[in-house]
Write a structure and sequence with these properties.
The chain has about 400 residues and is of the alpha/beta class. It has helices spanning about 15-30, 45-55, 65-70, 85-95, 110-120, 135-150, 180, 185-200, 335-350, 360-380, 390; strands spanning about 1-10, 35-40, 60, 75-80, 100, 125-130, 155-160, 205-215, 220, 240, 245-255, 260-265, 275-280, 285-290, 295-300, 310-315, 385. Bound molecules: nicotinamide-adenine-dinucleotide. Nicotinamide-adenine-dinucleotide binds near residues 83, 189 and 226.
């Protein structure tokens, strides 16, 4: 069992989640595929960097991410910065031969994502994009049921990601509302998680017909630091323009003939992290709600007419990742566990010399879907989604 040195770039919300995962992964999954060593963390200035190292248990800190990429002692580069830095860091890390885990969305656009994918393709390095929600055990259980044919041929996927942390027009104009940093709004930030789960569970997208809206056109400026995620009010200071969407709705035609819809918004008062999907197949249905993530609701058509209905399966040791998580169903898995599982699967791929999904090809494919959604909203028309040849036949 090897030690692998991690250089983490960005010590905000995701810096916290990834640091937790590196420390806890061997506690959950033992024997661990490798031991992640928290070697160096990079932050935007000296005080943030030294504070992040102390808080998140890193041996060293830096204000220059290049020093992580160039350090021969570092095995893994973890990109947890705002989106505008992902491409530059990932391409430099790939050229230096580092294994890379990059937060989602892979980048701001399909073009940037393509450059990142081309930098890692055929290099032998392990690359991963951090769509962690598909690693919720009940989502992986839904995948198992679908693969086993338990709900037959899929007809329809309805997915949502509804939040309200920025529904207040006085919550701050953080980087998430600025196109030059984020690329897009609710689309890249949250709808992409549902798009990733739709690809994972149903398959590739063939075409989309979409609406993008920006209901809150300006917000109070936020100065410096990590995104306040609406936890503070911006006050009466100067306001700046929001130039990204805050709501997206799209219809989907899948390549396998299934149809679907996806919606994401940050304006849904009362909804916090309301990620749901309902899937209808010829032999049954599946329903998932992240706010009740220990549960998977399933209905099998084969049950008799007098007992057919949704039943609740609580995930536990019998289900995906059960060997590493808690010993009793419904003890409770959280956001942290999805990141711990993600770290496990990433380090396993490195230790075994394999690959992992979702990787940069998946991140690029999701960016192509995002680009098609933007084009469709602009044209008010159906737009075809190109599918990478290497993904057209894969099983995700
Ligand atoms: N997988 C998920 O569920 C999930 C959730 C939230 C965010 N994200 C993604 O993670 C990434 C980071 O988001 P976040 O919520 O952690 O943002 P955040 O604003 O909380 O943190 C980003 C951090 O990066 C730092 N940073 C900025 N420039 C830097 C530089 N040049 N060098 C080093 N550090 C720098 C900032 O100071 C900040 O602390 C984004 O791509 C976002 O889309 C993913």
């Amino acid at each position: 069992m090897k030690n692998l040195n991690v250089g983490l770039i960005g010590g905000g919300f995701m810096g916290k989640a990834h640091s937790l995962a590196y420390s806890a992964m061997p506690m959950f999954f033992w024997p661990a595929p490798a031991i992640p060593v928290r070697h160096t963390i990079a932050e935007a200035n000296e005080s943030l960097a030294s504070e992040a190292a102390r808080r998140f248990g890193f041996e060293n800190s830096t204000t220059d991410w290049h020093s992580i990429v160039e350090n021969p002692a570092i095995d893994v580069v973890d990109i947890a910065t705002p989106n505008h830095l992902h491409a530059e860091i990932a391409i430099a890390a790939a050229q230096a031969g580092k294994h890379i885990i990059c937060e989602k969305p892979l980048a701001r656009t399909g073009e940037e994502s393509k450059a990142m994918y081309e930098a890692v393709k055929d290099t032998g390095i392990v690359h991963m994009v951090a769509f962690n929600y598909r690693r919720t055990p009940s989502v992986a259980l839904a995948k198992r049921y679908i693969q086993e044919g338990a709900i037959g041929r899929i007809l329809n996927f309805r997915g949502t990601y509804l939040q309200d942390w920025s529904a207040d027009p006085d919550s701050p104009l953080s980087w998430r509302f600025q196109k030059n940093i984020a690329g897009s709004g609710a689309l890249g930030d949250i709808a992409t998680h549902v798009i990733d789960m739709a690809r994972y569970l149903v398959g590739e997208f063939a075409s989309v017909n979409s609406i993008l809206s920006t209901f809150i056109p300006d917000r109070p400026l936020q100065t410096g630091g990590a995104d306040a995620l609406g936890n503070v009010r911006g006050g009466a200071g100067p306001r700046g323009e929001v130039d990204v969407d805050d709501e997206v709705l799209t219809m989907v035609r899948f390549a396998n003939g299934a149809v679907g819809s996806i919606e994401a918004t940050r304006n849904a008062y009362g909804r916090n992290n309301f990620i749901t999907f309902e899937i209808h197949g010829t032999e049954g249905s599946i329903f998932f709600n992240y706010e009740r993530r220990d549960e998977l609701q399933v209905c099998f058509a084969a049950d008799g007419n007098d007992r057919r209905g949704f039943r609740t399966v609580y995930t536990g040791p019998a289900h995906p990742y059960g060997e590493g998580l808690w010993p009793i169903p419904a003890l409770g898995v959280g956001y942290g566990e999805t990141k711990i599982i993600e770290a496990h699967d990433f380090f396993k791929a490195i230790a075994e010399g394999g690959s992992v999904s979702p990787n940069f090809a998946d991140g690029y494919q999701t960016a192509l879907i995002d680009d098609a959604i933007i084009e469709s909203a602009e044209k008010e028309a159906w737009v075809d989604v190109p599918v990478l040849a290497e993904l057209a036949t894969s099983t995700k």
